[in-house]
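Data card: per-record layout.
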Amino acid sequence: MEFFTLALFTLFSSVYSVLALSPPGACLLEVDEGPCRGSIERYFYNTMTQKCEIFFYGGCQGNDNRFKSYEECQKSCFRIPKVPQICRFPKEEGPCRALFRSYFFNMTSMRCEPFYYGGCEGNSNRFPDLTACKEYCSPRKTVPVLCLDFLDKGRCSASFPRYYYNTATKACEEFIYSGCGGSSNNFVSKHICMDVCVKGSKQSRDRPVHTNVSECLEERKRQD
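The structure for this 224-residue chain is written out next.
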């Protein structure tokens, strides 16, 4: 009975630890050093710069956007879609007290959400309607998912020349496949790899230019 209870506890603990990390969700959390006063070198995914960066963890609490190495951070967060810079600004209502219903792109939920703009100042992460916000900020899948898998040579002992899409160099590169296992990022020829991953990434349409109406009016007043 004790063995069964221990096994069940271990199973639930393992499941909980996997769900707690839940990348890429953890990568979207704000960095949290925690309340303790240690100085442990760790890495977090910065949604503003869209890069993995170093920080010093206090040693207790905090959240799951915390990785032991740059490589671990990259491996967990590299699939976070890239969005234009203005969409990464935090929501800012401004100091005035009007109530203009607007939309901003929330980097934590990766969605356009409503808020009330005060009518002055603020920042460019502000759109007059949901459609405009989604058109400019919503991530577009420019590369097929299988091209984003990590290089995995497999677990057998054969030697087959294959190609995979390298997300760092954005090119198809050769590797030796062992014959079994591995990931979906595995193509029998460079030509096929290019057709699926490189040409596919160039077919996404260009984003429209975001024009903030209030900024245009202010610029016009200055010119007058």
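Known properties of this structure: Helices lie at 2-21, 70-77, 130-137, 190-201, 213-223. The beta strands are 40-46, 51-57, 100-106, 111-117, 160-166, 171-177.

See the next section for split statistics.
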